[in-house]
Write a structure and sequence with these properties.
This protein is about 45% helix and about 15% strand. It is of the alpha+beta class. The strands form 2 sheets. Strands 3-2-5 form a 3-stranded antiparallel sheet. Strands 1-4 form a two-stranded antiparallel ribbon.
Length: about 210
């Protein structure tokens, strides 16, 4: 697995001063996972993700940093016996940074081994019928995008099972990880009719004046 050195340091230099403890907090979350303190790991991974969506920029280093943090949240959810949330965030993390799917997290014990054992839906997704959305939650444009003035469409999809979005998928590549994450978080709350698949393009725009 790519180490937390260069990529993380570069991503950190592009953030504000309030985010400069991410490195230490990530190490704390990793230790929590290793020692099976999953509730604390979940709490702090969410705090880190929220901070990153406010302050991270664009590019591969920012993407890797956010993806790794989301991967830690997935492992925390698995440790807390929340398989649906664990699976969702596994897909989010590996869609943000696909190489994480092949990373060696065995040092984190059972949840690390679980992460490495997961597989994406792949071509099964393409063969499903289109599902009908019955309730939408509009995504919020991340503060980082507003401050950096970067807005771009993000196309995502998911498998719909019993009216619920599962196994999210990034359809269009994006250099803006915070926009991708915001789009996925919105889709997670949508409601659908029946089973199938759903794709949507989220057009992020500056907030109305």
């Amino acid at each position: 697995m790519k180490p937390l050195s260069l990529a993380f340091a570069v991503a950190l230099t592009a953030t504000c001063l309030s985010a400069q403890d991410w490195r230490g907090q990530l190490k704390m979350v990793e230790n929590d996972l290793r020692t099976q303190h999953y509730g604390h790991a979940r709490k702090w991974s969410i705090k880190l993700i929220n901070s990153m969506t406010d302050h991270l920029g664009t590019g591969p280093d920012a993407t890797y940093t956010l993806a790794l943090t989301v991967a830690y949240r997935a492992m925390a959810e698995q440790g807390l016996k929340k398989p649906e949330d664990a699976d969702w965030y596994w897909h989010v993390a590996t869609n943000l940074h696909p190489k994480l799917a092949d990373a060696d997290f065995s040092r984190l014990g059972e949840v690390g081994e679980w992460f490495a054992a997961q597989k994406a839906i792949g071509k099964i997704f393409d063969d499903l019928p289109a599902a009908v959305v019955t309730k939408k939650i509009e995504p919020k444009c991340p503060l980082s995008a507003i401050q950096g003035a970067y807005y771009q469409p993000v196309t995502i999809g998911a498998v719909i099972t019993d009216g619920v979005a599962r196994s999210p998928k990034l359809v269009s590549p994006s250099a803006a990880p915070t926009l991708v994450y915001a789009a996925f978080e919105s889709l997670k709350q949508w409601q659908f009719e029946g089973n199938g698949k759903y794709e949507v393009t989220v057009n992020f725009a500056p907030p109305a004046q």
